[in-house]
Amino acid sequence: MSEKYIAHGDKIAARALGGEMMIMSAADSELFSLNETATAIWQAADGVTTLREIVERKVCAEFDVDFETAYPDAEEVVEDLARQGILVVSDSPIRAGNAG
Questions:
Q1: pTM of the full structure
Q2: Contacts by 62-71 with C-beta closer than 8 Å and gap 24+?
């Protein structure tokens, strides 16, 4: 399994509300609401931490789920958010200003 690094897209605005993230795309003003799990992934998306580490340290720990269940679900969430420009996915670390 190749490592995936994730970072925030650069054309979005985000605000935490009640434990969830509200994200607006600057491209088309579409509004997205992330559930608690997607919010945990979003908050840990620093471009240098792998998705595997995020799932192990955040998702599994905070939501009492095993890695084999959580990782495929996290990959799907990340791919969906990347299609919307909310996250950027790379097979190598993403430096600040290099996302998107």
A1: 0.88
A2: 63/36, 63/37
